[in-house]
Specification:
heterodimer, A: alpha+beta, 8-stranded antiparallel beta sheet, two-stranded antiparallel sheet, 27% helix, B: alpha+beta, 4 helices, 4 strands, 29% strand
Chain lengths: 320, 76
């Protein structure tokens, strides 16, 4: 009888803490007391980032830069790194993303949480935990496996230790937060990370979605020509009310890929830019997106993982 | 451009680009990148067995009633 998996594989343990206005969950397939120690370490990373980057703390480095007490070139290396990251994504996402608040103050919150998740993951790796999951308020980064195999005399896979099943990650249904909309398998291999970030449009009537009420109806027949003709050239044109025959507005976007900062920035940008901005993904190999439209229909990028059994019933080729 | 349209139960469920004019890189990118998708295509059968849940950022209060909170309690 070979029951090594049940005997040897540690059960997944989770600890949580509050930071950045939300709850952070740390999980790892190790003893729960070890997870508690690892979580304290990760919590320290979040506290440090909050103290440095919070616009709400007058003592934060960000607030001191905004008051002119510190000039940007004299800011800490960490601060300049995150500022550079925010500036890079502002450029890459055609301004959907900005390191400045509308009032002109520096505001790095668009990248700080994801950057902190990445830093916390690095710390977990450094303290010798190869398999972990960090969920910070709905944005997830996982590494390794939730059920790694262990080197064992009884383990037929002893020659390939530490490989295990992938993490199964769910995406919540924005129309019913008690239900899952989709699931993905993530990594499974130590040293390899998968990020899954989700952005939502919190309320209807957001200025970007001013044409929501005039929408012609559910997306039943994709018209690729019209879609390509209606690409906004920039953020200003996405506010254009005169566009017609566009898909229903996006209310939630999830982006998966190897890096949490990139995935999070893309999710934010796609939520702001609408489904036509999916073309932006072409610049980010390895990143895939799933969007939920206001009518409940879904739009996915080409290689978003999907089951195949629904695609084979009838195919025909059409010339457009 | 030439696309393959998948029809199930009388509805278009998938559109895949077979060929696109290469003098129009932009429309080709659009065609390749935004595809109507059925819910059943992205929710796998073992969907209830997940280790973590992604969603729009929740507050500390909203966390308490979230799926993630239920998972975290189960794994404490």
């Amino acid at each position: 009888m070979n029951t090594f998996q049940d005997d040897d594989a540690a059960r997944l343990s989770t600890r949580t803490f509050e930071a950045m206005g939300t709850v952070i969950s740390i999980s790892a397939p190790i003893d729960s007391s070890e997870v508690a120690v690892a979580t304290e370490t990760a919590a320290r990373v979040f506290m440090d980032a909050e103290e440095r980057f919070s616009p709400f703390l007058s003592s934060s480095e960000l607030s001191r830069v905004n008051r002119g007490e510190i000039l940007l070139p004299d800011a800490s290396a960490t601060f300049r790194e995150v500022y550079a990251l925010a500036s890079e994504f502002s450029y890459l996402t055609h301004g959907h993303f900005s390191p400045y608040s509308p009032s002109g103050d520096l505001d790095l919150n668009g990248v700080v949480k994801a950057w902190t998740i990445r830093e916390a993951g690095n710390v977990l790796d450094t303290v010798g935990i190869p398999h972990w999951s960090i969920n910070a308020g709905g944005d997830i980064l996982v590494s390794g496996s939730p059920a790694p195999s262990h080197p064992s005399a009884h383990d037929p896979r002893a020659r390939t230790p530490f490989f295990g099943t992938p993490w199964a990650l769910g995406i919540v249904d924005p129309h019913d937060s008690s239900q899952l909309l989709a699931t993905i398998d993530a990594t499974g291999t130590p040293g390899f990370q998968t990020a899954l970030a989700t952005s939502g449009i919190a309320e209807r009537g957001h200025h970007i979605w001013s044409r929501a009420d005039s929408h012609p109806g559910p997306l039943t027949r994709p018209d690729l020509r019209n879609r390509s003709a209606s690409i906004p050239a920039g953020p200003d044109q996405s506010l254009d009310d005169t566009q017609t025959d566009t898909p229903a507005p996006i209310i939630q976007v999830s982006v998966m890929g190897p890096d949490i900062v990139t995935a999070d920035a893309l999710a934010t940008s796609l939520a702001a830019g609408g489904s036509t901005s999916f073309s932006m993904l072409s610049q980010f190999p390895g990143y895939e997106a799933l969007a939920v439209l206001s009518d409940g229909s879904l739009v996915a990028s080409n290689n978003w993982p999907r089951t195949t059994r629904h695609r084979e019933r009838f195919e025909q080729s059409v010339m457009y | 451009m030439q696309v393959s349209v998948t029809i199930a139960d009388g509805k278009i469920t998938d559109v895949t680009t077979l060929a696109a004019p290469d003098n129009d890189g932009r429309s080709m990118m659009i065609a390749q990148r935004s595809i109507p998708t059925l819910r059943s295509e992205v929710l796998s059968s073992q969907s209830t067995d997940v280790q973590s849940v992604s969603g729009a950022t929740y507050t500390s209060e909203a966390y308490l009633s979230s799926l993630q909170s239920a998972l975290d309690k189960a794994n404490f």
